[in-house]
Structures are given as C-alpha cells and as structure tokens.
Amino acid sequence: MSATAFVAATSPRSGGLRRFASQEALLAVAVIGLAVVVGFINPRFLATRNLADILLGNAYIAVAAVGMSMVIISGNIDISVGALIGVLATLSGSMAVAGIPIALCWLTPLIFGVAVMAAQGAVVAYLRIPAIVVTLGMMSILKGGLISVTGGKWITDLPQNFHLADLNLFGAPMPVVIMVVATVLAALWMRYSAAGRAIYATGGNAEAARLCGVNPQRTVVMVFALHGLLAGLAALVYATQLRVIQSTTPPGLELTVITASVVGGVSILGGVGTVVGSTLAAILIAEITSALVFINVSPYWTDALRGALILATVIADIVRRRRRAARGWKR
Amino acid sequence: MSVAAMNPARRLPRWLARHETLLAGILVLALVGLGALNDRFLTPDNLLNQGRLMTEIGLIALPMTFIIITGGIDLSVGAIVGLCAIMLGYSWKTFGFPLPLAIVFALGVGALAGFMNGLVITRLKVPPLIMTIATLALYRGVAEGVSQAHSVRGYPEWFYFLGQGSVFGVPTQLLILVVLIVAAGVALDRTTFGRTLYAIGANETAARFSALPVDRTKLIIYTLSGLASGLAAFVLVSRVTTTRMDMGMGYELDVIAAVVLGGTSIFGGSGTIWGTVIGLVMIQLLKNGLALTGVKGDATIVVIGVALILSVLIASSMQRRRE
Q1: Do B148 and A300 touch (CB under 8 A)?
Q2: Positive or negative torsion for Cα A298, A304, A307, A309
Q3: What is the rounded distance in angstroms from the CA atom of residue B196 to the CA atom of residue B208?
Q4: What angle do CA A248, A251, A255 make, to 5 degrees?
C-alpha cells in the first residue's frame, strides 16, 4: 500500500522536482541513517578520521559519476571510464616525475579526457554505433595499451607539489571542494541552461528533441566531452592523492561509477535523474563499503552487495515507471 | 533490413555470401601472412592447440549470436564463468559433493544465472544491457564472496580429460565445440526457434503480433547463455587445473567481438553461426599470431578492441550504403 501512496505522491502532476527531491532525500536519509546504525554497533566508525577517509578517498568516484550521470541521462552508457581514469592518472604522474611543470601535469589529463571522450561521443552520435560497443572497444584499447606501454610499473618519487589533493581551500580539503563544486555547477547547469535541458530532452526522446530544435547529435558529443572533462578531474584527484601510482586501471571502477549514477536515481532508460543524487549515492556506497569492515563482514562481499544494490534500484526504477505509465493510460 | 531477415530464402543468402566471402578472404590472407612471418604458426600442433584455447570463448559465442540476433546483449557471461568455476570448486572441496555432482551443480548454477537474466528482461522489461551489467557485478561479487579470493586445486586426474585430453589427436573440448556449432547452426537456420530469433530482432512488435513466443524464446536464449558459460567454466577449470574467482574476466569482450566480427548486426535481425565461427577463429589466430611475433598478451586486447569497433563501423556503413 505504501507503494500506491508513493506513486500518488509522485504523480506527473506534482512535477518532476518533487520526484527527484524524494530520491535525493531518500539517499540523504540513508547516508545519515547508516552512519547512526553502524556507529551504534561500532562507535569507531564515527571517528572523524574514518568519516574523512570515506569522503576523501571516494570523492573522485563522485566526480566521475557526475559525468556518467550526464551520459546515462542522454540515453547512452560508458564503460571505458575506469580504464580512462587509470590512463590519465598514470599520464599525469609520469609527467610529474619527468619534471614537467606541475600546472601542465594537472591540465593534461583534463585535455586528454575531453579528447578521448569527445571522439567516442562523435562515433556514437554521427556514425550511430551503440555506445556500449564503442566504449567496450575503447575500454580494452585503453586497458591493454596502458599495461603494454608501462609494463605495470609503479610510479614513485612524485614531486611534493604534485599532490593537489592534499591542499586545502577555505579550510576544506581539495577533493571535497572539487566534488561539491563539480556537483553543484553541473546540477545548476543541467537544470537551468538550455544546453543542460537538451540533455534530458535527447535522452527522453531524441526524435521529439530534434523536432523542438535541439540537435541531438551535438548534444551527445557535448555530453561525452563534459564527461571526459570530469573523468580527467576525477583522475587528477585520484592521482594526486596517491604516493605511489600503480599504472593499471582500478579494477571494476566503471561499475562503481555506473552504480553510483543508477542508485542516485538516474534512469537507465535516459531522460531522468540528477547529479546531486549520484554524488549522494557515491558517498553512500563508500560508506557501505567502509561499514562492512566495521561490522566484521568480509570486504570480499562488497562487490556482491554493489551488484545487488544496482539490480534492486534498476528494477525499482522500471516498476515505478511502468506504474506511472499505466496511470497515464487510464487518464 | 527487415525484408532480408523475414524473407531468408531470397535476400539473406546473397548478402551473406558477400559478407562471408569477405571474411573468409581476410582469414585466408591472415593465415598465409602469419604463416610466412613465423614458421611455427602453420603447424597442425599449433593450430589444434589454438582450437583448444578458443573453445571457452566459442562455447559462449554460440548463444551470444542468438542473443545479439534478437537485438539483445549479455555482458554477464564472464562473471557467470567465474561464478560457475567457483561453484564447481567449492561444492566439491568445501561442501563435499562428489565431483560429477559438483560439475552438474556448476552447470545448473550457470543455467540459473542466465535464467535470472532472462526472467527479469522478459517479465520486467529491463533492457538487457542494463540487466546484465547489474548481474555482471552481482555474479562476480558472489563468486568473490563465496570464495573469499581463495583458489581450489588438486582435482583428480580424470577431471583433466576434458580440458587437456585428446580424442583421435583432436582436443576433447574442440570436438564438443564442433558438435555444438553444428547443433546451433541447424537450430538457427532450420527450426522455427531459429527463425523466431530473426523475427524478434527485425521487429519485436511484429513478431508478437504474429503470435510468436517472444518472451519464451528470449528466456531460452539467456538461459542457454548461462548454461554455455557454465560449460565454458568446466572446460576452463579442467584446462588450467585450478579454480579462481577472477576466471573469465573480460570474456564478454572476446565473445562479443567474435560475434560482431562474424557479421552479426549489433542492432539485431541478422547474423549466422557460420560467421561467428569465422570471427572466433580470426580472433584466436590474431592473438596467436601476435604472440608468436613477439607482441605481449596485453597488447592483443588492444587489437581486439580495435577490431570490435572497426567491424561494427564497417558493417554499419555497408548497411547504410545498401539503404
């Protein structure tokens, strides 16, 4: 019965805003609720140090999930992002070790991220190849390329001033600042700018968007380019946090990022979702992973839990959509 | 496109002849080229050994061809291989099942995993791409959780017959693959089940209105995909003699690349088992040829990625020109 009440509360007439807000509110409640419950079982979970570790260590996932959310909202998917972040982090670190000016080391991953993703976006949009094929191919190109070029060597002796993530801005650590700024800017831009709305229009119904004067192809390329910029930013946060950069791709990173987007309320069918939701979800997932350790569950179960979480959210989203569509038909 | 698929007797063979001639031509060129570059390449021993190595991918590529023909996809196959390998090893070593029962159990888990995919895809209408990304994470995670990243070793000698033995000089698993290729080819080309797959891929709504059992057919092919992944896990464990939870990682790339390279349209509605076999052989020869010329294993996945994107690009541009 509560499901019926929920559907009523989120009926189309109440507008999109309240529906999105409810998903985000739910996530916020879950983030706080989980902290309280786990803190009750094991107070050490709530130590400032641990909470800071959760936020700082996973900020880059939230940043990447902002871009991923845009891609999924536009009706596409990207599974090359994990490999790309690995490549960009290695690139940035190697440049720093080679003595190239730090500003350039920070800027290069952003530029390369945009270039690689925009190229993929162009293939998806103009040659009409499904994003899954393009990004699956790109994933193996990046992953294999990285290992065969570097031989899996670790990058050590990074210069002291390379560690952007160790800096503080207005008293807040840099990864958190970047995460918050990226999320807020992207959320406002997607909500209030014409280009941002075009992403929703394209994902909701590309043909209808075209008839309304939106260029769906250009929108998809733009979305992928922005996603590349955010992936570059994520790689930067990730690389500058580490003392040693292992020149391999973080395993399963693309799945973590996709999970954050989907659990954050981004509909896998395109057209629906916000980046505030995906950032909250990224924090929630990191919190769950950490909580498992504190309540003595083997960390090897983390991936299964992540899979179950993504599956449950996807099914809930589809069922909710279908109920709403059924109501629409009746009217 | 839809005409070609719905009217196989007239239109499809002509188109296929072109595509397969092209593929077979490239294959022969690749064989000759690699043979000229390296004298260890064109030997019966090497070729039979390559057949052994490509069996796991080949087993999964058969149902994957069915799935892609219907316009679907299954990204969870690699994870199912890992899950089944773990289930085989753990049910034998930890739960104390007799080994034959453990094998059946692992195959059952594979079929069940595929059945779950099919059930949610057909009943709840979750897009196959999303469903199988979710179960990719879930199945691999369960394999990781159950095994706690420990491996299982020390199988009895007879267990290795499938993965390492030979019958009349031919690797055991290759014989099984050949039998299944023939069965899949006949099923796809000569049965109502096979023709239903093309109809679904060409126009699912039309297939439904033609009273074809769309949901049941989809359920069957996703279950087959899981079962084939289970069988691949059995062959793989038997070949490499240990069970690890990361087995089959990245298989989805090789399998999809083989199918798409073989001319099956990623948009559904067309494709053949014959094409998939050529795609499969090409990928294996590519890997082997590169390895023999001194390219390391990691670089070959770059080549497979490029081959995947290029083959889809070429196929779609050819199709557009026809239209």
Answers
A1: yes
A2: negative
A3: 10
A4: 135
With a CB cutoff of 8 Å and minimum separation 6, the contacts of A302 are A288, A289, A292, B141
Strands B166-167 and A245-246: unpaired
Dump pLDDT digits (tens) for B215-262: 999 999 999 999 999 999 999 999 998 888 889 888 988 899 899 888
Query: pLDDT per residue over A92-143, tens digit each?
Result: 988 888 888 888 889 999 999 999 999 999 999 998 888 888 998 999 899 8
pLDDT of residue B182: 95
- Mean pLDDT across B284-313: 80
Burial class (CB in 10 A: 0-12, 13-18, 19+), A48: exposed
What residues 15-74 of chain A have any CB closer than 8 A to a CB of chain B? Answer: none
Q: Which of B141, B296, B305 sits opposite A140 (nearest CB)?
A: B305
Q: How many CB atoms lie within 10 A of CB A187?
A: 19
CA-based nearest residue in chain B for residue A150: B298
How many CA atoms within 13 Å lie on the side-chain side of B291?
Answer: 13
| Contact residues on chain A for B287, CB-CB shorter than 8 A | none
Shortest distance, CA B141 to any CA of chain A (angstroms): 4
- Token readout for B142 is 């369960």
Q: Nearest chain B Cα to A124, which residue?
A: B313
Query: Which structural domains are found in chain A, ordered by start?
Result: 23-34+41-318 (1.10.3470)
Q: Which residue has the tokens 């058969």?
A: B62
Residue A10 to chain B, least CA–CA distance (Å) = 21
In DSSP terms, B167 is beta-bridged to B170
Rounded Cα–Cα distance for residues A76 and B302 (Å): 23
Provide the b/e sequence for B174-183 (b: ≥16 CB within 10 Å): bebbeebbee
The verdict on a CB contact (< 8 Å) between B301 and A140 is yes
Q: Which of B125, B137, B312 lies nearest to residue A133, judging by beta carbons?
A: B312
In chain A, where do the E strands start and end?
Answer: 154-155, 168-169, 172-173, 245-246
Phi and psi, residue A237, nearest 5° = -60, -45
- Interface confidence, given as ipTM, is 0.78
- Listed by number, the residues of chain A in 262-301 with a beta carbon closer than 8 Å to a beta carbon of chain B are 262, 268-269, 298, 300-301
- Give the sign of the dihedral formed by CA A301, CA A46, CA A175, CA A99: negative
Q: Using the beta-carbon criterion (under 8 Å), do B125 and A315 form an inter-chain contact?
A: no
